[in-house]
Automatic annotation (TrEMBL):
It comes from Thalassospira lohafexi. GO terms for cellular component: cytoplasm. Signal peptide: none annotated. This is Sarcosine oxidase subunit beta. It catalyses: sarcosine + (6S)-5,6,7,8-tetrahydrofolate + O2 = (6R)-5,10-methylene-5,6,7,8-tetrahydrofolate + glycine + H2O2; sarcosine + O2 + H2O = formaldehyde + glycine + H2O2. Its EC number is 1.5.3.24. It is found in: Cytoplasm. It is an enzyme of class 1 (oxidoreductase). Belongs to the SoxB family. The keyword rRNA-binding does not apply.
Length: 417
């Protein structure tokens, strides 16, 4: 390692993700690629990795308006699980969990996947019935999930308050043991490094301003801040901004964009062994390897492209955490931030082909697309390479909003919308 790179790695470690950009020199795009992917989040970079590794397609550019991993990939609370109700979703998210298990080896980059268990708390009869229905459905799909009584829940997560006098008493919980967390920016970096080593160009600080179509209606390329780039295929994976980019190609998307925010506490010694989510009291929490409590909130009640989020909501979240875990009452919070999530009417993503030949889309992950990253990327790469959907992403068509074959997973979102 050179003196320079050792120094910049140290600076990186001390000052956080933004300096990664400094390590990754801004490249100039070529004038033409086989495939252009709009959005260098985990999904876009992952798709480039699988295109190169599994389909031998390396003449690919991943273009981002900011720095790689600077969108929702670097802003989420890193919860990974596959306890979804419907068969289509269970297959998709469980495919992702399968890939998470071998991802560090696949990328030769430690994404710190930690299978520590995700516990979803039930606070009323509706929660109990809904989670038990999920457990039965999950088992039929081969997805692990089991019911814990309040005392079993406390044994699993000792800081939990199971007093019957609590404002929202814990009536039990659904535990998926195979679920957990991973280090979000390592996922972006690992996929980026692997794709780049295989010949993919990663172009940062380069907004895509429009998708250009030819006279026959098919994709011709993208207009960008660095000029026009010709491409036979374009895949849009731009999370909260997908509808704007797709609109420029003449495709109207059934999406709304909302801020979703999270916060972390000051770092403390290991105290919190798992992930706990409570949709009713409304908060979710885990502890990062750095020691910070990682806490997430619900979406704001209004559409916006602001990467912040409102104060009242975050106050409500912190109050909810103190309610369920009184032990954290005196903790100090260190920082908060927001990301823009794009939400579909049935709360399931849209993946695959579009009415425009050569144009592909991966969006609508709403509050829950981090867990899907390897699965979404893997099936997106397949779809781009072959021009047809993969078996696993085939049900998640754009067309379902016309035909009515919706996959209504709002209850599995586990985050208030
Ligand atoms: P992104 O990482 O957002 O990447 C999209 C990229 O597109 C961005 O880098 C952006 O700069 C770029 N872009 C946009 N417009 C353009 C343009 N015109 N030109 C070029 N580039 C463009 N999911 C979970 O599963 N578990 C969680 O615990 C969880 N917690 C969350 C907490 C918060 C606070 C937030 C905000 C989200 C959370 N999510 C969670 C959701 C998850 O983060 C996202 O669904 C997922 O990261 C989406 O990945 P992506 O690669 O599609 O998008
Ligand atoms: O989908 O598990 C999830 C999630 C947790 C926080 C935000 N999304």
């Amino acid at each position: 390692m050179t003196h320079f790179s050792a120094l910049s790695l140290l600076k990186n470690a001390l000052t956080g993700q933004k300096n990664w950009q400094a390590q990754w020199p801004d490249s100039q795009p070529k004038s033409e690629y086989d495939v252009v992917i709009v959005g260098a989040g985990g999904h876009g970079l992952g798709a480039a990795h699988y295109l190169a590794k599994e389909h031998g397609i390396t003449n690919v550019a991943v273009i981002d308006k900011g720095w790689l991993g600077g969108g929702n990939t670097g802003r989420n609370t890193t919860i990974i699980r596959s306890n979804y109700l419907y068969d289509e979703s269970a297959k998709l998210y469980d495919h992702a969990v399968d890939l998470w298990e071998g991802l560090s080896q696949d990328l030769n980059y430690n994404v710190m996947f930690s299978r520590r268990g995700v516990l979803m708390l039930a606070h009323n009869v509706h929660d109990v019935q809904s989670f038990q229905r999920h457990i039965h459905s999950n088992r039929l799909n081969g997805v692990d999930n089991r019911w814990l009584t309040p005392h079993e829940a406390k044994e699993f997560c000792p800081p939990l308050n199971i007093s019957p006098n609590a404002r929202y008493p814990v009536m039990g919980g659904a535990l998926q043991m195979r679920a957990g967390t991973a280090r979000h920016d390592a996922v972006a970096w690992g996929y980026a490094r692997s794709a780049s080593q295989r010949g993919v160009d990663i172009i940062q600080n380069c907004p895509v301003t429009a998708i250009r179509r030819g006279t026959d209606g098919s994709v011709e390329g993208v207009e960008t801040a660095k000029g026009f780039i010709r491409a036979k295929k374009v895949a849009v994976s731009a999370a909260g901004h997908t509808s704007v980019v797709m609109d420029s190609a003449g495709v109207r998307m059934p999406l709304e964009s909302y801020p979703l925010q999270a916060l972390v506490s000051e770092p403390i010694k290991p105290i919190f062994p798992c992930v706990v989510m409570s949709n009713t009291v409304h908060a979710y929490i885990s502890q990062s390897d750095k020691g910070e409590l990682v806490i997430g909130s619900g979406t704001d009640q209004y559409t916006s492209y602001s990467q912040r989020g409102g104060l009242p909501l975050i106050e409500h979240t912190v109050a909810a955490i103190c309610e369920i875990f009184p032990i954290f009452n005196r903790m100090r919070m260190l920082r908060k931030w927001g990301g823009i999530v794009d939400v579909t009417p049935d709360r399931s993503p849209i993946l695959g082909t579009t009415p425009v030949p050569g144009l592909y889309v991966n969006c609508g992950w709403g509050t829950g697309g981090f867990k899907a990253t390897p699965g979404a990327a893997h099936t997106l790469a397949w779809t781009i390479a072959k021009g047809t959907p993969h078996d696993i992403n085939a049900p998640f068509t754009l067309d379902r909003f016309r035909t009515g074959r919706l996959i209504d997973e709002a209850a599995a979102a586990a985050v208030a919308h």
